[in-house]
Automatic annotation (TrEMBL):
GO terms for molecular function: gluconate 5-dehydrogenase activity. The lineage of its organism: Bacteria, Pseudomonadati, Bacteroidota, Flavobacteriia, Flavobacteriales. Pfam families: adh_short. It comes from Winogradskyella flava. InterPro entries: NAD(P)-bd_dom_sf, Sc_DH/Rdtase_CS, SDR_fam. It is an enzyme of class 1 (oxidoreductase). Belongs to the short-chain dehydrogenases/reductases (SDR) family. Its EC number is 1.1.1.69. Keywords: Oxidoreductase. This is Gluconate 5-dehydrogenase.
Amino acid sequence: MSQELFNIKGKVALVTGSTHGLGMAMAMGLGKAGATIIVNGNSSQEKIDNAVAEYKKNGINAIGYKFNVASEDDVINNIKKIETEVGNIDILVNNAGIIKRTPLVDMEVEDFKQVLDIDLVSPFIVSKHVVKGMIERKAGKIINICSMMSELGRNTVGAYAAAKGGLVMLTKNMATEWARFNIQVNGIGPGYFATSQTAPIRVDGHPFNEFIVNRTPAAKWGDPNDLAGAAIFLSAKASDFVNGHILYVDGGILATIGKPSNE
Ligand code: GCO
Ligand code: CA
């Protein structure tokens, strides 16, 4: 019974930005649970090929598609290709994102817009073109990858926070429009995880490294593999009446105001 609730065998999952980091960790989790993984990135074909090889090494059926999630034409063409070459997309994880760490007063408008484009407009673009098939089939799962910055501010990440805060409301609105078609749209809000994105602020001796460990009730940086369970839950039958919810996987950060560093 519980196995049936979490069974995603044979499902096709498109995970944007799945060549590394949290996207790869979540896609690995979905793949090990039996889903076929559409690996996506936009930096180079070589990076995609290497990632696909890594998935295959883990016994996962993975196929790579290089495209820019911020370009509607690129998205339309590749969704069509995926649907004819692999099959209907059952699960979409909007994970691709960027961050620029610059104080708002110094930030160029162009840079601010680029962050919004990739972190907020892209989930709209990709979902818009994947959901059409889901609506026809009256079934689908969409997971938008949010952030601590969906709820909290932090110096230097204003554009990212604006995008990730917006993504929460986009998630709720997608759920509002699409839940009636048996499509569940939810979010995962990762806390602070050890990835290449956080590498610059995680180095030993960096004040932020100690700050995060102290600020997190679980008292450590997250291991990207800790996100697999949330991704599987929101992709499976177990979440069929869960709509517009953000599941924070953060070691308890949002549960607390924090504590002095000597406590
Ligand atoms: C930062 C971090 C964060 C994390 C993550 C937190 O500079 O504060 O990079 O933005 O990446 O999104 O949930
Ligand atoms: Ca199928």
